[in-house]
UniProtKB/TrEMBL annotation:
This is TonB-dependent receptor. Gene3D superfamilies: TonB-dependent receptor, beta-barrel domain, TonB-dependent receptor, plug domain. Residues 459-957 form the TonB-dependent receptor-like beta-barrel domain. Residues 37-50 have a biased composition (Low complexity). The keyword Transmembrane applies. Keywords: Cell outer membrane, Membrane, Receptor, Signal, TonB box, Transmembrane, Transmembrane beta strand, Transport. The keyword Ribonucleoprotein does not apply. Residues 1-19 form the signal peptide.
Length: 994
């Protein structure tokens, strides 16, 4: 696809090295074959470039180490995704290409988080290596940190200059000694083409076979060389519009004609000791506490629902259920806890969530570099980007347990009469609120990132010292706005109506005085009046405005001070300073303030609302907060060659250490020890590394915006009584960094003499993560202290004599995780297969997880193995295979993505009869299997001439439906972290290069 286009004229990487001096561009006059820095990566065909003078920018620095010297082989396994594979995958966002790698598990993107209103992570594209979470994967741009796009500190990949990225390095293992905090799972480093010269562009569009998620992408980059190739200027811009996959309707109908949603649920029988399983796997679970336009859910009239015209009818319960009608419990004979099976599903809300957030992103990037001396450059980069996303978390705003007075003037006459016959004055009511406009969440992230730096050589002596210094300032501003969401106190007031002087008004006099307009819950699908909507769901809905800044100053040196018996001793050392800051402001109805001005047109004072604690919205109750910390770091790394001779091969020892001081948690060390042995046997190399890695608590964990609620009946285990408490959710400035011990052992076979086109690597890893920061409930905090653990005892006072009793809900360093597994990567390149022109390449990458044990560190809980749990993100096996045939004229590519069958959870005991007693830690269940998935993607390109290439791509060719991920509530039964939820996608486009 790219052999004839200079778009692939990137620096050649000639060996599996952590840092490699390359052959200068233009030194060859015919296309040359280059090899990725990973031993199992296939060679890539690279077109010759116009001759240029070699500079310091031609140095290839691979992310696994800070050592920069030719011939050095890092012990940490890495995967390299080159520009050729990025282009062939033809994704509108490079994040999608990288997230397909098997070692990346639990990454978030536009298809995840769409069910959420308040998380603030909708549409955020961020990586997770080893299933350890996005906060434990360090993402870099040209080896430099990027300001976070969320208070957790993770950046948004959508904001990177994607057309200029020539490769992506993925370090599969801890790299904190080299790069600092967050590199527990590993590092993803995007490398841009800093010497690009020419004009490059890409235009593409896409659509699903269901006719939605229409996509349009336009990218353009220009690079120029001036002043005898000493001044390089690069500009790029791109715009991406992905319409997303919208919500379905109530019930089980998804967007368009997708038909795989079956409201699959683990229904709870509520019985633990009758020899039968407590949980049952069932399709078409029916919540029986509410219906689409309302349902009387308890009492003598239980089971009367209302249709789209507001006409009462007898609700059809599943499971042949019969409403008990004898009390206010709302139980249904023949059904389960909260659910029946089958019946009228029209009011279920799970299918109403977006399957993919809509996304619009605009990115601008510039780089100016000047070689003020040979092999020395000063540069300035600017990256300004904006990403807007929107999603619908669910339709309506379901309410249960509402008390409606029989005298309410909106209640139909027939119901009033039945109230009189039954001798009741009120009834319980539940509704999906299908008559209300659906909730919409809009995020707007804006990033401003500036980097100025110097890099190059020091002198011209044999030690070959290099330096790299830069200062980065990043600013991210995120605005979240929620539309069509109700204020709970106002909604509750509006549904209580009375007749007053011949008019229907709100029953509460204070509510009437503050503008209450009554809401008719019995009008079916008739949209409430504009005045009613303005009162219960004001246009100025929940919002959150977040400002985050990041400042980094870094300097690093690398050189070879000594020539030893087996080669040069290589050193790298440096220092870094970093400051992180955030401030978040939210609306007063959600955040709470001491006073709200009556003259505030957006958020006027209202006696019904809680102005101190806030949390008045149905969802989206964002809070105010701020915090900052500073970091001082120093690091050093050494590569010591041990031996180098023909008889026993070549070996090296690699060691690194980093001392980090946090203004919040003090000083901590990270280190690594490793080595490689290139054996005398053809192509065989062994490698191993062990390291101590860290993750410091982020701004959100340290300085979480406070949320205060009153809990009237809290259990005091010390006196075995019920007490009233003030529960405050706050940050914990006493948190310590998490620490991990990562050990990796691997063997590499790289192009042996007996099969020169073949490479394979197998690496075993074992990671033990301690002091994991995790949240506890108020009751868990108190119970933990009562059980004898002093960690949480300072977080509460249940016998306060000078003020109210309180419990501060915080995060603590209590949990621990242990995971181990295999990483496998193999490739084979066959030049001129069967005498045909071009080359055929096969590449496969796989990850096998032996165990992923999570220990919450809470009394009365047991460790839980997440490996093979397909409701999560860590299947037992995950593979990616790619086959590509490329000539000077065209290319064809096939890609297979597969992960293995799994379970809902290893804690379950599967049985049909004769079941043991079901417990909280080991509940019984009748079925515990969740099928894996296989996806086939195909693509191709055709070089129209030297400058233009047309291409196509089809993802999920067989339109494979996702396996149900059973819920224990009313959510959508799907796991977008693993499964493709969109269906077959078609993409076509045109690339050009001059």
């Amino acid at each position: 696809m790219l052999a004839s286009a200079s778009i692939l004229a990137v620096a050649a990487i000639s060996a599996p090295a952590s840092a490699q001096t390359i052959t200068p561009q233009g030194s060859a006059t015919v296309p040359v074959t280059t090899q990725s820095a990973d031993p199992a990566a296939p060679p890539q065909l690279v077109a010759p470039a116009a001759p240029t003078r070699p500079t310091s920018s031609d140095e290839i620095i691979v992310t696994g180490s800070r050592i920069q010297t030719s011939g050095f082989t890092a012990p940490t396994p890495s995967t390299i995704i080159g520009q050729d594979q990025i282009l062939k995958n033809a994704q509108p966002n490079i994040f999608n290409t990288i997230a397909q790698l098997p070692s990346l598990q639990g990454s978030t993107g536009v298809a995840t988080g769409t069910f959420s209103t308040s998380s603030g992570q909708q549409g955020l594209s961020s990586f997770s290596l080893r299933g350890l979470g996005t906060i434990r994967t360090l993402t870099l741009l040209d080896g430099q940190r990027v300001v976070g796009a969320n208070v957790t500190g993770v950046p948004d990949i959508s904001m990177f200059p994607q057309l200029l990225i020539k490769r992506v390095d993925i370090v599969n293992g801890g790299a904190s000694a080299s790069y600092g905090s967050d590199a527990v799972g590993g590092v993803v480093n995007f490398i841009t083409d800093t010497r690009f010269v020419g004009l490059r562009g890409n235009v593409q569009g896409g659509i699903t076979n269901y006719g939605d998620d229409k996509q349009g992408l336009a990218q353009l980059a220009w690079g120029g060389a001036f002043a005898h190739d000493r001044l390089h200027v690069i500009l790029s811009g791109e715009y991406d519009d992905e319409q997303g996959v919208g919500a379905g309707d109530f019930g089980i109908d998804l967007a368009k004609s997708r038909d795989w949603h079956r409201a699959t649920t683990l229904v709870n029988t509520g019985i633990t000791n009758n020899g039968l399983p407590q949980y049952l796997y069932r399709d078409y679970a029916q919540p029986f506490q509410y219906a689409k336009y309302g349902l009387i859910s308890a009492g003598p009239l239980q089971g009367i629902a209302f249709d789209a015209n507001g006409v009462p009818f007898n609700f059809q319960y599943g499971s042949n259920g019969v409403p008990q009608r004898n009390n206010n419990s709302g139980n249904v004979t023949g059904c389960f806890v909260g659910f029946c099976v089958g019946g009228d599903l029209s009011g279920a809300v799970g299918s109403g969530a977006s399957l993919k957030s809509a996304l619009k992103r605009a990115d601008g990037y510039s780089r100016i570099g000047f070689d003020f001396a040979p092999d020395n450059e000063i540069y300035l980069t600017t990256n300004i980007a904006q990403v807007k996303t929107s999603n619908q978390p669910n339709p309506g705003a379901a309410k249960t347990g509402l008390t409606i007075q029989c005298a309410n003037p909106f209640v139909p006459l027939s119901i009033k009469q039945q109230c009189a016959t039954a001798g009741i004055t009120s009834f319980q009511f539940g509704t999906s609120n299908a008559e209300l406009p659906n909730i919409k969440v809009h995020t707007d992230r804006r990033q401003y990132r500036f980097v100025g730096g110097l890099k190059g050589k020091l002198g011209s002596g044999p030690s070959n010292w290099r330096y790299d210094a830069y200062y980065e300032h990043g600013l991210n501003i995120t605005d979240i706005n929620v539309d069509n969401i109700t204020l709970t106190p106002r909604f509750n007031a509006a549904i209580q109506a009375i007749n007053l002087n011949g008019q229907i008004v709100c029953a509460n006099a204070a509510a009437r005085a503050s503008g209450c307009v009554p809401l008719n819950l019995f009008a079916g699908n008739a949209l409430p009046s504009a005045a009613t909507l303005a009162y219960i769901a004001p246009e100025a809905g929940p919002f959150q405005h977040t400002k985050q800044t990041q400042d980094v100053a870094s300097i690093a040196f690398s050189g070879e001070p000594l020539k030893l018996w087996a080669g040069p001793l290589s050193l790298a050392f440096g220092a870094e300073w970093r400051r992180e800051f955030y401030r978040v402001n939210a609306d007063p109805y959600g955040a709470g303030v001491t006073t709200i001005s009556p003259n505030d047109s957006d958020y006027p004072a209202d006696p019904l609302l809680n102005t101190v604690n806030g949390s008045n919205w149905y969802a989206g109750n964002y809070k105010n907060g701020r915090g900052r910390y500073t970091v001082y770091e120093g690091f050093a790394e050494m590569n010591l060659p041990l031996w180098d001779n023909q008889a026993i091969g070549r070996a090296n020892f690699n060691a690194a250490a980093r001392r980090t001081h946090y203004s919040t948690s003090g000083t901590i060390w990270a280190w690594k020890l490793g080595g490689t042995w290139q054996t005398p046997w053809s192509g065989i190399r062994f490698r191993g590394v062990t390291s101590r890695d860290i993750r410091a608590p982020n701004l959100s964990e340290l300085f979480a915006a406070p949320v205060t609620t009153t809990v009237p009946n809290f259990t005091d285990p010390f006196t075995n009584t019920q007490v009233s408490i003030i529960q405050s959710t706050i940050g914990n400035s006493a948190l310590r960094p998490e620490t991990a011990r990562d050990t990796e052992l691997g063997v590499v076979l790289s192009r042996p003499a007996w099969l020169p086109g073949f490479s394979v690597s197998v690496d075993y890893y074992h990671i033990k993560l301690k002091d994991v920061i995790s949240s506890l409930s108020a009751q868990q905090i108190v119970n933990l202290c009562f059980a004898g653990d002093p960690t949480t005892c300072g977080a509460f006072n249940l016998h306060n004599t000078t003020g109210p009793n309180f419990v501060n809900v915080q995060s603590f360093n209590l949990a621990s995780w242990v995971t181990s597994g295999l990483n496998i990567e193999a490739s084979y390149q066959w030049n001129r297969p069967l005498g045909l022109p071009g080359n055929f390449t096969v590449r496969a990458l796989g990850t096998h997880i032996y165990k992923f044990i999570v220990n919450a560190g809470i009394p009365n809980t047991i460790p839980n193995d997440q490996a093979g749990v397909n409701t999560g993100a860590t299947p037992d096996w995950k593979w990616l295979a790619i086959q590509s045939y490329t000539t000077d004229k065209f290319s064809l590519t096939a890609q297979e993505r597969w992960f293995s069958d799994g379970v809902f959870g290893h804690q379950y005991v599967v049985c049909q009869t004769g079941c043991p007693v079901s417990t909280v830690n080991n509940p019984t269940i009748d079925f515990n299997k969740m099928k894996g998935a296989f996806y086939l993607d195909v693509g191709g390109s055709y070089n129209l001439n030297r400058n233009f290439t047309a291409f196509f791509k089809v993802d999920n060719v067989f339109d494979h439906d996702p396996a149900p991920a059973p819920q224990t509530n009313t959510g959508l039964d799907v796991n977008p972290a693993l499964y493709d939820t969109l269906g077959r996608i078609y993409r076509v486009g045109l690339r050009f290069n001059f």
